[in-house]
Amino acid sequence: MTGRCRGVALYATLALLAGVSSLDAQISFDRIVRAERTPNEWLTYNGDLSAQRHSPLAQITPANVKNLELQWVFQARSLEKFEASPLVVDGILYTVQAPNDVVALDATTGRVFWVYTYAPSPLARLCCGRVNRGLAILDQTLFMATIDGRLIALDAKNGGVLWNVAVSGARAEAGYSFTVAPLVVKDKVIIGTAGGEYGVRGFLAAFDAKTGREAWRFHTVPGPGEPGNQTWSGESWKTGGGSVWVTGSYDPESNLTYWGIGNPGPDWNGDQRLGDNLYSDSVVALDADTGRLKWHFQFTPHDVYDYDSVQVPVLADIDWQGRPRKALLLANRNGFFYVLDRTSGEFLLGTPFAKITWTTGLDANGRPQNMVPLSEAGTQIFPGVQGATNWYSPSFSPRTGLFYVPVWADTYSTFTKRPVEYKEGQRFTGALPGMPIRLLQPSPVVNRRRPEDGHGAIQAIDPKTGTKAWEFTMTDVIDAGILTTASDLVFSGNREGYVFALDARTGALLWRANVGGQASNSPMTFAVGGRQHVAFAAGSSLFVYALRQEGR
Amino acid sequence: MRRSTSIAAVMTLAAATLLVAEVAWAQGHGFTPQDIESGGLLYQANCTGCHGPEGDGVAGVNLGSGRFRRGTADEEIARIIIGGVPGTAMPPSTFSEAQAMWIVAYLRSLADAAPSGPVAVGDRARGKALFEGKGQCLMCHSVAGVGSRVAPVLTEIGSMRRTVELQRSLLEPSAEIRTDNRFARAVLRDGTTTTGRLMNQDTFTVQLLDMKERLVLLDRANVREFTVLNESPMPSYKDRLTPTELADVVGYLAGLRVRR
Q: Which residues of chain A neighbour B219 with C-beta distances below 8 Å?
């Protein structure tokens, strides 16, 4: 036996002792498709490709959740909002420190293995913070899209750069930026561009995971000769927005990938972009191999309220009028909860989950009727500019059959129509609507909200009927997403600096902890060393909880 | 007596007009009363050192007039607030775009809420005596550490609020109550009532500064009834002070300035 062989043999023995197999380290796409078979991991932004943000883990239960105990904290070297959802693979937690540093930590202790530091161009223009929502992984490669228009592949073992490409046309100085966590489908990495407040022409693009070479591109604002271009008057398509800044979902059966599309530009004056403005405020279903559009559904045609439809398109097989149906569930910023047939895009249901005044209602095809135009004197509209919900993830539990959504209930803005002119790199929005509720801050602020300004809530909605099963009401609004587990727990956090657990069937509060910073991402869960953990980001830190161990 | 009543009535009417003007303006510009309030807080904390509470502290510049030398659109003025004016004493700031816009909202509200007539500003020394004596203001307020801390501290109020606002607060204390100055009343499950200044609140707890100057945290689970009061506990001085006395108190308050 040579020394080298002895070394290999020794390694193999050690690996067995540690319960590690070399196979585990490879995150094949097949493993991502079957994420529910490896519930200890968290392999995509929303946990799996259906984007249900539901975990099969059930060690933490309604009965014992009160025994949750803080295990470790990661304090980011950043004062930005912590919007990233971590990934966990084989006991290693990967996350992003805003804007674009990648960190690998031991998931049990929080000790850092490596930090990849990336300094994005200072020319990057972001409407709402220099943030990032997370990573994707395939095999042993991590993917991060940057706020200055690049896509970077890193070796998950040491943070070394495998490739770093400038995405064609994504010029930071013109307002193109990536804040989205990429989605891996087969051998490709899919991202979309932000910049809906800068007059970008939005797109989704797929890149070869091995090389970073662009494989396909879907323009969310069609150009001349493409179907849908006629929904933009004149040259308005060139600055039409239609940004993409929240990760989509994927159905392996149909090979369709679903993405929510952002607002048209300029945001609050539609006079120079007459027409429906496709595919702004829509969900699009694309062939994952080619990027070809299979179908689309537009929630808010000719939007003048900034009702981005980037909300996560959640895929669920539900009972629909007595028959199984392949559904797409989406609680929209415009205040309606939608159920669509995800194979065809057919509208099945749309019901309001908050106070709505921008339309009198939806017709049989889901198209809003009698939309309220904006005036130069100012028009008060519900929901407000931040919407009835926003980018933070909802959750669907196949066990309860309920859809859980963070809600800004009964909030409003005063919208004012003002002239606006496109200048590259400048905001292309119109007048910023007034709102009694402030935008999210990383640090806690004194709650000065008045009851008449609306409130925050978590709602459980039955997709079969669109009716509310329960509501957990909060004093302040909410900017955190929702995780559900197979033990019928709902985890979330809020602007007040709490993280908490509710009973998924009743909405009853079961546990809460004050972590002192505003929660601005969606909780996730994983298991390591036989113990289930739940991770919450609040302020600029990540807080990881597990059940208290007996005898400790 | 009759004369003082009519003056008070005119003043009340002026205060009401102010309020209406502010609301109409907010609608016209897409700003809310909260924008104006936030902008006012930022302005008072960062700008009054040079520009003064009335916006006229720098020679040749009157921010309260509604006209600006270097810009007309809200966005232009916001850019100046952020970037400063090179070659002048106006420095760049670290305000966000939204914060700068709130300050614009506040400055515009100054012009729209300009008083219909001059505000009577009387004798400071007489005003101080009234403030501490007949007015019983130290029962709730404090100046330079003397008095109660339940109501807003007035040590530097003259640097922060305009005379028209000081006068209005004395005549119509409930006309404008900043959200951080509101009082709340909680009836606990055991029947006891706690009233105090609402310091903070969340889904699970309420934090008050009670009338005995104790910082109290209440668990909402123990609270049977919770009311944020829309009325100020402060009485109106419309009928408690003569117009001359009122002017003297305004004079005293306006003179309570930041000392450097």
A: none
Q: Which one of 3.90.1300.10, 3.90.110.10, 1.10.260.40, 1.10.760.10 gives the CATH number of domain B2-112?
A: 1.10.760.10
Q: Where are the beta strands (DSSP E) in chain B?
A: 142-143, 146-147, 183-188, 193-201, 205-210, 215-219, 223-228
A448 interfaces chain B, CB cutoff of 8 Å: yes
**Per-residue confidence band for B61, with pLDDT thresholds at 50, 70 and 90:** confident
Residue B160, pLDDT > 90, answer no
pLDDT at A552: 59
In CATH, B183-228 is 1.50.10.20: no
Contact B30 A475 (CB under 8 A): no
- Give the three-state DSSP class for A365: coil
> In the predicted model, is pLDDT for residue A120 greater than 60?
yes
CB B95 within 8 A of CB B41: no
- Closest by CA position to A159, among listed A177, A181, A180, A140: A140
Domains contained in chain A, CATH given: 21-52+61-76+84-111+126-428+438-547 (2.140.10.10)
- At A373, the pLDDT band (50, 70, 90 cuts) reads very high
Q: Please tell me the distance from the alpha carbon of residue B32 to that of residue A432, in angstroms, as a whole number.
A: 11
Q: Is A306 a catalytic residue?
A: yes
Tokens 């912590």 found at: A82
Q: Angle, nearest 10°, between helix axes B97-112 and B2-29?
A: 140
User: Complex ipTM above 0.90?
Assistant: no
Asked if B228's CB is within 8 angstroms of A475's CB, the reply is no
**Half-sphere exposure (Cβ direction) of B111: Cα atoms closer than 13 Å:** 14
pLDDT digits (tens, 9 = 90+) for A46-71: 999 999 999 999 999 999 999 999 99
Measure the CA–CA gap between A525 and A523, rounded to whole angstroms: 7
**Is pLDDT above 70 for B116?**
no
CB-CB neighbours of A549 under 10 Å:
9
What is the rounded (10 degree) CA torsion for A225, A228, A229, A231? 150
Tokens of B153: 């501290």
Q: Which of A48, A276, A281, A306 is catalytic?
A: A306
CA of A473, closest CA in chain B: separation in Å? 8
